[in-house]
Amino acid sequence: MKETALDLQIKTLPSLPGVYQYFDANDVIIYVGKAKNLKKRVSSYFTKTHESGKTRVLVKKIVQIKHIVVDTETDALLLENNLIKKYQPRYNVLLKDDKSYPWICIKKERFPRVFTTRRFIKDGSEYFGPYTNIKTVYTLLDLIRGLYPLRSCKHDLSSEKIISKKYKVCLEYHIGNCKGGCEGLETEQAYQDNIKAIRSILKGNFKDSLLQFKIQMQILAEQMQFEEAQKIKEKIEVLENYQSKSTIVNPKISNVDVFSIVSDESFAYVNFLQLSYGSIIRSHTLEIKKKLEETDQQLLELAITEIRQRFNSSSKEVYVPFKLNLGDSVKITIPQLGDKKHILNLSIRNAKYYRLERLKQVKITDPDRHAKRIMTQMKSDLRLPKDPIHIECFDNSNIQGTHPVAACVVFKNGKPSKKEYRHFNIKTVEGPDDFASMEEVVYRRYKRLLDENQALPQLIVIDGGKGQLSSALKSLDALGLRGKIAIIGIAKRLEELFYPDDPIPLYLDKKSETLKIIQQLRNEAHRFGIEHHRNRRSKTALHTELETIAGIGEKTIVELLKHFKSVKRISYAKLDELEAVVGLSRAQKIYHYYNK
Question: Helix/strand/coil (H, E, C) string of 324-385?
Answer without folding.
Answer: CCCCCCCEEECCCCHHHHHHHHHHHHHHHHHHHHHHHHHHHHCHHHHHHHHHHHHHHHCCCC
